[in-house]
């Protein structure tokens, strides 16, 4: 996914500049910017930078509050609704909301602390490193969890028998933990000068290719099921008993590829997949600006210029993805929206 692509770009930029930023005591051409290992901190902010940072703080504060509330609500709905607790799909959604909640609780406040310190000229390398490292690790964990969600949808729709026999909440959690450990390693390794660029690049290509394959397969199954239903309706209207052996085989294959349950269940699976597509496109839009900035302006920052001010907002958009995920869940899923509204009414009633 593009989120992983952004993670690759961040890591690549850190590795490519490790030789020049390997120490916080490096000399730079301007005293406005001070090197902070593989990143930078602003020591003497300009007036436009201060104004821009203030607006950035306001937006990040709002996102932190709203995002935390919405993600907590998703988790609460899952645990308060017995029907949802039994479903693997909603369990993985709950895992994603837990990670996104960590983003809203840690990354947004870290942005506030770092920005306020720069505005008041008390900036420290520690603040920036905590902000940058937590953003990389938690964003990566969020994106990998979303990939697990896509994988679960693929198995549910395209491999229903395998999904029923093998896909459980425990196994999804184990897979997520393994991927989270990879994110932890990719976030920490560059700090020690470890060259992990080939590994991260290969992993990003694998995830991007896997996501493309997942949605292509789901689209083919949905199209096949639709065509089968249309042919069945046409045959019933003409002659309900005139079904050839070839048509019968095609219909059975279509039923096997959908799910050995009811048509309502299959439609619900497709609706969830469509919701994931919306999440995917929002992820692309929110991460694309940061990816472009990292590609076009990968050089070392030495002065407070327009690029430094733009990065305030591109990084904010990356973290904003954790709030948008929960918004999309409630907007596109009737079950979550209904249960969430009911839970809010019961809570605020007392």
Brief overview:
The chain is 80% helix and 2% strand. It has 350 residues and is mainly alpha-helical. A two-stranded antiparallel sheet has the order 1-2.
Strand content: under 5%
- List the domain count as a whole number: 1
Structural class from helices and strands?
Answer: mainly alpha
Global outline: globular
Measured between the Cα atoms of the first and last residue, the distance is 42 Å
Q: CATH architecture, please?
A: Up-down Bundle
CATH-derived topology: Rhopdopsin 7-helix transmembrane proteins
**How many H/I helices?**
12
Mean pLDDT: 78
Give helix and strand order, one letter per element, not per position: HEEHHHHHHHHHHH
What's the CATH class label? Mainly Alpha
Can you put this structure into words, describing what you see?
With 350 residues, this protein is mainly α. The chain has a single domain, classed as Rhopdopsin 7-helix transmembrane proteins, CATH 1.20.1070.10. 80% of the residues lie in helices and 2% in strands. The protein has helices at residues 2-16, 47-80, 82-85, 88-119, 125-158, 160-166, 169-188, 197-238, 245-258, 263-296, 306-332, 334-349, and strands at 33-36, 39-42. A two-stranded antiparallel ribbon has the order 1-2. Strand 1 (33-36) and strand 2 form a beta hairpin. Helix 1 runs antiparallel to helix 8 and helix 4 runs antiparallel to helix 5. The chain is globular. The two termini are 42 Å apart.
């Amino acid at each position: 996914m593009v989120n992983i692509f952004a993670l690759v770009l961040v890591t690549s930029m850190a590795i490519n500049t490790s030789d020049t930023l390997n120490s916080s005591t490096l000399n730079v051409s301007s005293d406005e910017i001070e090197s902070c290992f593989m990143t930078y901190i602003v020591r003497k902010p300009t007036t436009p930078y201060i104004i821009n940072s203030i607006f950035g703080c306001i937006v990040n504060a709002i996102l932190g509050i709203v995002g935390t509330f919405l993600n907590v609500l998703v988790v609460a709905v899952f645990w308060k609704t017995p029907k949802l607790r039994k479903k693997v799909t909603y369990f993985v959604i709950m895992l994603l909301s837990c990670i996104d909640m960590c983003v809203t609780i840690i990354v947004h406040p870290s942005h506030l602390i770092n920005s306020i310190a720069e505005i008041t000229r008390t900036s420290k390398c520690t603040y920036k490193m905590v902000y940058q490292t937590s953003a990389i690790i938690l964003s990566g964990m969020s994106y990998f969890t979303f990939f697990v969600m896509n994988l679960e949808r693929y198995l549910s729709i395209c491999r229903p028998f395998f999904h029923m026999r093998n896909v459980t909440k425990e196994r999804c959690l184990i897979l997520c933990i393994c991927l989270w450990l990879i994110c932890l390693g990719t976030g920490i390794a560059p700090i020690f000068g470890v060259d992990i660029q080939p590994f991260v690049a290969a992993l990003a290509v694998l995830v991007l290719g896997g996501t493309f394959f997942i949605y292509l397969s789901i689209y083919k199954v949905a199209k096949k099921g639709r065509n089968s239903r249309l042919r069945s309706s046409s045959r019933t209207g003409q002659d309900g008993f005139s079904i050839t052996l070839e048509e019968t085989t095609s219909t059975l294959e279509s039923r096997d590829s959908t799910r050995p349950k009811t048509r309502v269940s299959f439609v619900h699976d497709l609706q969830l997949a469509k919701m994931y597509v919306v999440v995917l496109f929002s992820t692309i839009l929110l991460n694309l600006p940061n990816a472009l900035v990292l590609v076009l302006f990968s050089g070392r920052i030495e002065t407070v210029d327009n690029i430094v001010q733009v990065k305030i907002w591109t990084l904010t958009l990356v973290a904003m993805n954790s709030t948008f995920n929960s918004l999309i869940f409630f907007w596109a899923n009737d079950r979550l929206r209904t249960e969430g509204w009911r839970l809010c009414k019961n809570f605020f009633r007392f």
